[in-house]
């Protein structure tokens, strides 16, 4: 027996162990030799919209703290809080004006410390959102940078001369509309902003910027955060020669020519800085989650780093772009993820994209479809990141007219681009006024579905989406095969039923998802996949019918999910 396998055996024999890190430190691992985040379920909280403790209509840190019992009972292990730093709120927090404080609208640093302590008591870790690409134009660094061409902080941002009167330095466009350059008449130069003009890009080629940002991360590590979700990492570097991006046919939603963003996105230097951030994270045993929009799995793979020394959790955001649920499409994607290696990180919704309930619902089976989607991405190998309200089947709501829009891109791009308000509406806690989110006037309207889709009503209904999520999360926690098991696809030609087994040593859990609007009878080819036993026991079912023993020929209701244990 090799030395390595003896170590692995010893690790498996204990519930929790330590594995050596470079530098002599010890990294905590569980019975399967995994770090905490690999078997955790993360939950994204959009703080403005989660729970309002002081009734000013905007959610806050004390509101989050008051809901930790709910989150613990739900079965999640970590929350990622989108930015709650001081901010003029042009991009609702993604325009940070001080990286080392809390915006008064969300509370104080003392409230944050209280949240950390309370979360710990509930077995929940806190992940902060870190916005490295840009600051607010109200940040003191930018004020200094803008004050004069001779400012010691001039080079902290990207300032360039125009090509002539009213001619920006090149053809780069902002993803939020228009040129990515804004002219500053006082100093006669343009600054670069990939997002809003109020979000100037930092110059990551300047070592002082790197140092300042690493210090900001350390500030929060010292306060006890377990890691960061890194915003917009692929926009950190730009071509120093500012070459024009090649033009593509057509215009974007804001009426500007489409371009192929090869000179201002995904530059190789991004990986160097990810490695630097990882080194700092490793000093604190912290995890880095990346906002990594990619076109394919190979691109995503790069963010783990050639030596797994970049992001532990680059988000697979590709499923959010699937317009429809489909067995063959998911099967193909998961197959690609599995063959690429790396620890997968699945996401189906977040604060920038139409909620999965709305995106994948067919208007007839929406609640059932929400359960099928949950059963799929919460039983796969990897870590899942939920979005608040997904567990109760919240759907997108509004804006219904341009006047109602709060997200600036919705005003600029109306009606082609309506902005992101619809997926950010207040959490639906109960049937009380404003869905129990606030006694005041909520900053965004509450979706009318709160009367049926809310935490209180769904807690009382054994067949609710919420209780289905709870069952899945409990199962994920308790079944080693679901945490760690190998993914084995079944019945790969079935156009309607996506089925797979998660196998770990002698144990196996089978997941069957009918992703179609009609009933399906499926004969599971278990023997072919190497499972001689045909004795199956229902662990979780989305069906309202009582659980009963099943055979390898499954009769599945439209849009339904079954999780079964295969007897050894
Ligand atoms: C991605 C964030 O998720 C989004 O909400 C924000 O507008 C941009 N990055 C800019 O920070
Ligand atoms: Ca508040």
Key attributes of the depicted protein:
15 helices; binds calcium ion; globular; single chain; 18% strand; 8-stranded parallel beta sheet; binds 1-deoxynojirimycin; 568 residues; 25% helix; alpha/beta; disordered N terminus; 5-stranded antiparallel beta sheet
Task: From the alpha carbons, calculate the radius of gyration and give it in angstroms.
Answer: 24 Å
Q: Structural class, from secondary structure content?
A: alpha/beta
Helix content estimate: 25-40%
Largest sheet: 8 strands, parallel
Number of strands: 22
User: Helical region count?
Assistant: 15
Report mean pLDDT, rounded to a whole number: 94
**First and last CA, distance:** 26 Å
Strand content: 15-25%
In order across it, which strands form the biggest sheet? 13-12-9-5-4-3-15-14
**Which parts are unreliable, with pLDDT below 50 for 5 consecutive residues or more?**
1-15
Describe this entry's structure for a reader:
The chain is of the alpha/beta class and 568 residues long. The chain has 15 helices and 22 strands. The chain has helices spanning 3-13, 61-66, 68-74, 109-121, 140-147, 207-223, 269-283, 297-301, 327-340, 356-360, 366-377, 408-413, 455-460, 465-478, 480-484; strands spanning 16-20, 26-30, 41-45, 78-81, 125-130, 159-160, 181-184, 189-192, 227-230, 247-251, 257-259, 287-290, 313-314, 345-347, 383-387, 486-490, 497-504, 507-514, 520-523, 536-541, 553-556, 560-566. The strands form six sheets. It has an eight-stranded parallel sheet, covered by helices on one side. Strands 16-17-18-22-20 form a five-stranded antiparallel sheet. A three-stranded antiparallel sheet has the order 6-8-7, with no helix packed on it. Helix 8 (297-301) links the parallel strand 12 and strand 13 (313-314). Helix 6 runs parallel beside helix 7 (269-283) and helix 11 (366-377) packs parallel to helix 14. The longest helix is centred in the middle third of the chain and has 17 residues, at 207-223. The structure holds 1-deoxynojirimycin and calcium ion.
């Amino acid at each position: 027996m090799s030395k390595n396998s003896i170590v692995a055996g010893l690790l498996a024999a204990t519930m929790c162990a330590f594995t050596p890190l470079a530098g002599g430190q010890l990294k905590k691992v569980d019975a399967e030799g995994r770090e905490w985040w690999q078997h955790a379920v993360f939950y994204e909280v959009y703080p403005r919209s989660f729970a309002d403790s002081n009734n000013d209509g905007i959610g806050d840190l004390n509101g989050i703290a008051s809901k930790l019992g709910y989150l613990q009972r739900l079965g999640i292990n970590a929350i990622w809080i989108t930015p709650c730093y001081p901010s003029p709120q042009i991009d609702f927090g993604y325009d940070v004006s001080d990286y080392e404080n809390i915006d008064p609208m969300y509370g104080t640093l003392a409230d944050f410390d209280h949240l950390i302590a309370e979360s710990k008591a509930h077995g929940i870790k806190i992940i902060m959102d870190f916005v490295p690409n840009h600051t607010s134009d109200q940040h003191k660094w930018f004020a200094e940078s803008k004050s004069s061409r001779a400012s010691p902080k001039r080079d902290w941002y990207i300032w360039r001369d125009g090509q002539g009167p009213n001619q920006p330095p090149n053809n780069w466009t902002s993803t939020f509309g228009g040129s990515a350059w804004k002219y500053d008449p006082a100093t006669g130069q343009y600054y670069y902003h990939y997002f809003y003009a109020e979000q100037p890009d930092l110059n990551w080629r300047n070592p002082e910027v790197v140092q300042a940002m690493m210090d900001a991360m350390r500030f929060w590590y010292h306060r006890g955060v377990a890691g960061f979700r890194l915003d917009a990492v692929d926009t950190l570097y730009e071509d120093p020669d500012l070459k024009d991006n090649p033009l593509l046919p057509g215009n974007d939603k804001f009426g500007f020519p489409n371009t192929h963003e090869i000179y201002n996105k995904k530059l190789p230097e991004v990986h160097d800085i990810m490695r630097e951030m990882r080194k700092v994270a490793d000093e604190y045993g912290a995890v880095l989650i990346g906002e990594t929009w990619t076109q394919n799995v190979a691109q995503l793979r790069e963010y783990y780093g050639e030596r797994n020394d970049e992001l532990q959790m680059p988000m697979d955001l590709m499923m959010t772009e699937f317009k429809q649920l489909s067995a063959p499409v998911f099967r193909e994607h998961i197959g690609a993820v599995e063959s690429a290696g790396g620890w997968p990180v699945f996401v189906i919704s977040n604060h920038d994209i139409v909620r999965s309930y709305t995106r994948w619902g067919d208007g007839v089976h929406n609640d059932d479809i929400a359960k099928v989607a949950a059963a799929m991405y919460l039983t796969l190998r990897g870590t899942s990141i939920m979005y608040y309200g997904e567990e109760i089947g919240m759907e997108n709501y509004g804006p219904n007219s341009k006047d109602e829009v709060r997200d600036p891109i919705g005003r600029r791009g109306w009606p082609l681009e309506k902005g992101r308000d619809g997926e950010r509406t207040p959490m639906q806690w109960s049937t009380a006024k404003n869905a129990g989110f606030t006694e005041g006037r909520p900053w965004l309207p509450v979706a009318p579905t709160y009367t049926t889709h809310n935490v209180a009503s769904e807690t009382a209904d054994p067949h609710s989406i919420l209780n289905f999520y709870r069952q899945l999360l409990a199962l994920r926690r308790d079944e080693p095969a679901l945490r760690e098991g190998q993914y084995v696809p079944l019945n790969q030609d079935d156009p309607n039923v996506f089925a797979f087994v998660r196998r770990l040593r002698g144990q196996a859990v089978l997941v069957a998802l009918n992703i179609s609007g009609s009933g399906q009878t499926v004969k599971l080819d278990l023997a072919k996949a190497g499972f001689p036993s045909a004795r199956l026991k229902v662990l979780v079912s989305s069906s309202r019918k009582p659980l009963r023993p099943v055979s390898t020929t499954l009769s599945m209701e439209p849009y339904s999910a079954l999780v079964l244990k295969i007897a050894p």
